[in-house]
Design brief:
alpha/beta, single chain, about 325 residues, 9 helices, Alkaline Phosphatase, subunit A, about 35% helix, two-stranded antiparallel sheet
Length: about 325
């Protein structure tokens, strides 16, 4: 992931990725925000919308003849998606729809590993996930914001308690993601209570320094670096990016009050504040006993959250430098 500019276009980059949608459009309720778009060059960013469990193609973006859902015409003549995604259908002329991806991997955990790392799972060592790789290429010691954040990812109890395949592997723990468990609550323990916070931090820093000197290992060094970054983030004004309630009520309504919509809104705020890679996890797509009913129930959340995210990035002048990928 070179830091210099290349001639690779966003559309070309998406064709090389494992799965996804990249998109952008302006919708009416954002017109009043257009004047706030920043014209200065921005660094490149990525938002991965991960539908955990594996969404059914024929019930989402690739409807079949005589299927359970009616095909809906989109903004692009000849392209149809399912009827439950009307907002995304209206944006289709700004999407890249990939229907050709296949895999021989039929296990959830091996597939998540493959799609996050680009490698088949092996017992020899763990490969770093794409977000961790991004962190290793763009992060600096003095950055106020983390390079990689995951939202609502949780831990996979069926896979040894690992963090949904977002492991740094041989890159080291300093490139692990920062976890936001609930977008409605923001980042936990960001603002410590009490009047003696500064004294407590100094005491902890002295203790950490002595421990690191006595046990000088890469893991201990990474822990100390994480502590320093945490303190820096707590003291930074950019930490307000974790509070989605600062957004206007109308915009929060457009994203949706459900967790996925709030997660998409938080992802936009974090990218705007300087985070390079954000993964939003939307769980519950492992539909074994008939996919039609649960996907029909779930699709409005995804439709509103993703479509509004695309439109919001577009109107703020951020979409040209932000790759949005949808997959699972």
């Amino acid at each position: 992931m070179p830091r210099r500019e290349t001639s690779l276009r966003r559309r070309d980059l998406l064709k090389l990725s494992a799965a996804g949608l990249v998109s952008g459009v302006t919708v009416p309720w954002f017109e009043s925000l257009a004047g706030t778009a920043i014209g200065q060059p921005r660094k490149k960013s990525c938002i991965l919308l991960w539908m955990d469990g594996g969404p059914s193609q024929q019930h989402t973006f690739d409807p079949k003849p005589k299927g359970e859902f009616a095909p809906k015409p989109t903004a692009v003549p000849g392209i149809h998606i399912v009827e439950h995604l009307p907002q995304l259908a209206a944006l289709m002329d700004d999407l890249v729809l990939v229907r050709s991806m296949t895999t021989e991997i039929n296990g959830h955990y091996d597939a998540k590993y493959f799609l996050h790392t680009g490698y088949k799972r092996t017992t020899a060592f763990e490969h770093p996930s794409v977000g961790c790789i991004a962190s290793s290429q763009v992060s600096h010691a003095g950055d106020e914001m983390p390079a990689f954040v995951t939202i609502d990812a949780g831990y996979d109890r069926n896979d040894g308690g690992r963090l949904y395949r977002n492991v740094p592997g041989y890159l080291g723990p300093s490139h692990s993601p920062l976890l936001v468990n609930d977008p409605n609550e923001g980042l936990e323990n960001l603002a410590p209570t009490g009047t003696d916070v500064e004294a407590r931090l100094k005491l902890l820093a002295r203790s950490e320094k002595r421990f690191a000197k006595q046990f000088a290992t890469p893991v201990v060094s990474a822990k100390q670096a994480a502590f320093n970054r945490a303190v820096q983030l707590m003291q930074s004004r950019r930490s307000r990016a974790f509070d989605v309630d600062e957004e206007p009520e109308s915009l929060r309504q457009a994203y949706g009050k459900h967790k996925f919509g709030r997660s998409c809104l938080l992802a936009r705020r974090l990218i705007e504040a300087g985070v390079s890679f954000v993964e939003v996890v939307h769980r519950g797509w492992d539909d074994h006993k008939g996919a039609a009913k649960p996907i029909a129930y779930r699709s409005p959340w995804m439709d509103a959250g993703m479509a509004t995210l695309i439109s919001d990035l577009k109107v703020r002048g951020m979409l040209d430098d932000t790759l949005v990928i949808w997959g699972g």
